[in-house]
Design a protein that fits this description.
- This protein is mostly helical and 260 residues long.
- The protein has one domain.
- The chain has twelve helices and no strands.
- Helix 1 packs parallel to helix 11, helix 4 packs parallel to helix 12 and helix 5 packs antiparallel against helix 12.
- It is globular and about 50 Å long.
Length: 260
């Protein structure tokens, strides 16, 4: 019950910041750097107050999350929100379950439903590159979900310092590698809510890993798919068709089947 409440709160925050990310004009690592810069003071305070810090697992997590954020922006530039978001969020728990558990018939059947749903949604407004990038986003999500679960449950990394180290390292690395910082600064008003909602959406997920298995948590995040699709339809006024709704339903049904 606690895990479900945490995942519900996470889903609302996650879908909202993804919706905001879709409308950002500055794309690429520069905007990811700006979001990290917004929360940098809080990260420094958390590190100064931390009694113990596990550095290297957080650095691995940072690399995976940075790749995820940059790929997500590219996906939103290639296709609409109501396509990319369900594809990326719906495919991730299937990938996690396939890796974390010994697959059985219902796992394969669920995976087939998810990818059938993706193909249905792609028929509405074909965006092959957007679909491919959405699947790559899902792969990144599965990778950091599995790694973060290992860091929290096996390595017993402290949650707050783990997030803080990841954010600090991301800002430092992108400051050295990324060009276009000055142009990104013009988006600071859009960056603030995204920077706040991103850790607010993922912190509860990490906490939920203390109450449920990694595959259960991954599947529970399917709530994001439904909320994100509704936001795409209602807020962005993206086209609603029977085919797209059928595809979305297949994605959700597939993930539920995987979780049985």
């Amino acid at each position: 019950m606690i895990a479900l409440a945490l995942l519900t709160a996470s889903a609302c925050c996650h879908a909202t910041w993804n919706l905001l990310m879709k409308s950002v004009s500055t794309k690429g690592p520069a905007f990811v750097w700006l979001c990290g810069l917004v929360t940098l003071p809080l990260s420094v305070v958390l590190l100064l107050r931390a009694s113990s810090i596990t550095w290297w697992p957080a650095l691995v997590s940072m690399a995976l999350h940075t790749l995820y954020a940059v790929t997500l922006q590219k996906a939103y530039a290639a296709a609409d929100f109501a396509t990319v978001y369900p594809v990326s969020r719906g495919s991730a728990p299937v990938l996690v379950t396939l890796v974390a558990l010994a697959p059985s018939w219902h796992v394969y059947a669920g995976a087939a439903l998810v990818f059938a749903g993706i193909l249905l949604m792609d028929r509405v407004q074909p965006h092959t590159r957007g679909i491919a990038l959405g699947l790559l986003v899902a792969t990144c999500t599965a990778a950091y979900t599995l790694w973060d679960a290992y860091a929290i449950t096996t390595l017993h990394a402290d949650l707050l310092s783990y997030l803080a180290v990841g954010n600090l390292a991301q800002v430092v690395v992108l400051s050295l590698l990324v060009r276009g910082h000055r142009a990104a600064l013009g988006e600071w008003r859009r960056a603030i809510p995204i920077a706040i909602l991103t850790p607010a959406s993922y912190g509860p997920v990490l906490l939920a890993l203390s109450y449920a298995s990694v595959s259960t948590v991954a599947v529970g995040r399917t709530l994001n798919v439904v909320i994100g699709a509704l936001l795409g339809f209602v807020v962005l006024h993206e086209r609603v068709t029977c085919t797209r709704l059928a595809g979305l339903g297949a994605v959700v049904a597939g993930v539920v089947l995987v979780s049985i």
